[in-house]
Fold:
Amino acid sequence: MAVTDRVQSPHPTDGQAPREKSVKRLAFSQKVSKWDVRLSPYLYISPFFLLFAVTGLFPLLYTAWVSLHDWNLIGGQGAFTGLENFQFVLAQPFFWNAVGNTFSIFLLSSVPQVVIAIAIAAVLDANLRARTFWRMGVLVPFVVAPVAVGLIFNNLFADQAGLVNELLTGIGLDPVRWHSDSLASHAAIATMVNFRWTGYNALIFLAAMQAVPRDVYEAATIDGAGRLRQFFSVTVPMLRPTIIFVVITATIGGLQIFDEARVFDQAGLGGADRQWQTLTMYIWELGWGQRNFGRASAVAWLLFLIIVVIALANFLITRRIASQGGRR
Amino acid sequence: MRNRVRITALSAAATCLALTLTACGSGGEENPGVEGETGTEDVTLSVGTFNEFGYEELFTEYEELNPNVTIEHKKAATSNEARDNLTTRLAAGSGLSDIEGIEVDWLPELLEYPDQFADLSDPAVEGRWLDWKTAAATTKDGALIGYGTDAGPQGVCYRADLFEKAGLPSDRESVAEMLDGSWQDYFDAGKKFVAASDGVAWFDSAGATYQGMINQVQNAYEDNDGTVMATENAEVKDIYEQVLQASVDDDLSAHLTQWEDDWVAGFQSDAFATKLCPGWMLGVIEGNAEGIEGWDIADVFPGGGGNWGGSYLTVPTQGDNQAEAKKLADWLTAPEQQIKAFESKGTFPSQVDALESDTLQGQTNAFFNDAPTGEILASRAAAVDVTPFKGPKYFAINDAMQQALTRVDVDKTDDAASSWDKFVTAVGAL
Structure:
């Protein structure tokens, strides 16, 4: 072995000792290579977990610590109060209102988003001229900053001077009270979210559609299935894993919605009656408006728990769907 | 790297400056407009303001006087936005501008953290401002955390053309005479106007009008020791009911929320005919009502004089250029400069010398039908007889109140009684 040779050569006359040493060396280098095999994979994936520990786990635990104290944004740590902050926010009508708003905006944005994205993807999947142009085109809204989107839509959805209401009154309908009526404000905010994310999801669906083997379609055509039938009986079932992926990412994003709702009016608190205050905005109001970091952290943790519950539900449902898909 | 070198050089220059005020730096001759010496090292100073401070031209002037200084202006749309920004960055410990403009309503919150702001007290500026202006920015230990900029003595801005159309007197003196008296008189005049105005409202928003009224109350939300009694204060509830009666039941309000898109658009669409206007509001009106003719301002304010807002410049201690920043703040708030800001955007001075200056007294505003705004606002300032107490929770409580008014006046999601209940809950949750 090369290693032993090299170790021995400087001490050609040294009898036993070098041999022992070389055995040791051998053992050590063997050990190293054993460690290498065993530990390297973990080392290679460790950057993610180290990063997660720093940017995910630590804040999570620190937030829990903060939530158990009186904690002022600027003044810092105060007395330990146990679960008082949680008790307080759970008793607040604004908290439950924010939970309702969050889910309402989430549903109004995610459901149409997925449906429209699949439809757009199906169109883009067809033989179009200048295909790349159209495909890139649907991504344009995604590169516009959310706050800029907010400003533009704000103008469109202004109650008295907005373009949308002017069009509505122009065709003889009543203007919608976008900033007063709770559901209308949710719809307006969901429109902003959809504007931004639909194209992005459409591209993901498009990629998945192109991975569907063409011979399945050929077989379907021979069996006499029309375009529509092919779409619902071939394309959509084949997209199932992708749909699940998109739904999960949309859920996580949807429950944390902030930018669009915050820029929906000047004050950024979600309306005078908190018509469109989401949970993340409530965290903002408590932490930065009232400077009560303890309570803000308590809400942050409650939001975390809600997301965990939803993610578990998601997991169970998707497992069912996946196994059903397997059986067919 | 370059930045660090620059900062080091700069702090060297700053130290040099502090040690020997006359010995180093050669900028003295070229900078006749500035007292004392300036450093010669290049320095970029950022200045955070909101609404209209009227500083745009002054910055250019200062840069010309001090070729080594570059000023970066960060302008927030509203006072709320500026407060959010300030709070976040104070908590983060970095990211604040070298000079931050703050408003009197949230000054008390900041006085609780005097370490965050440089003590700007200086024999050179003693007696520069009205006493109450300086007192409000002074900590218990005597540190001065902000230099006063403007004050907000209020008059009534009105649309002379719309008054005329509705058959009301429209020249300044008659309007002042008509509106002189209590708030009820102001609202009664409104009823007369609305009856003949063909859909134009009397004032813009319940919230804005309430603001004018509450600033005449000595202790609105808190006792002098900081105890919150906002929800038990009969005076507050009275004003709340009175303003909503006028806004909703008598329909005198244009049902707008201040600073929203609809409110801004309302200036262009003749949505309302009067607006309570502190000096700094003149610039805002002029900007929003660009191209509209007929605005004027009357030397009158219902219910006695009133002061709304007014700001300060602070130098956060997290900044790297505190010495230069202090110098700029000092220069900007000197009477001569404040008068220029007043000429530009109507921000009425809080500096004693400025109040007495002929330039101020002779100031007219072309947009407001050449009204002698200097004279009018000086007379309005003299009419202010109450300095309201504003404690650490003033801003948050007042914000909750503004939302209570918006719910009834603009959103119509609540009536006065149910919205008051929500206000009580919101104050209880602070």
Remarks:
- The interface with chain B takes residues 73-75, 88, 92-94, 154-155, 158-162, 177, 179-180, 265-269, 271-273, 275, 288-291 of chain A (CB under 8 Å).
- Chain A has two domains: 2-67, 85-327.
- Strands of chain A lie at 69-72, 76-80.
- Chain A has 15 helices and two strands.
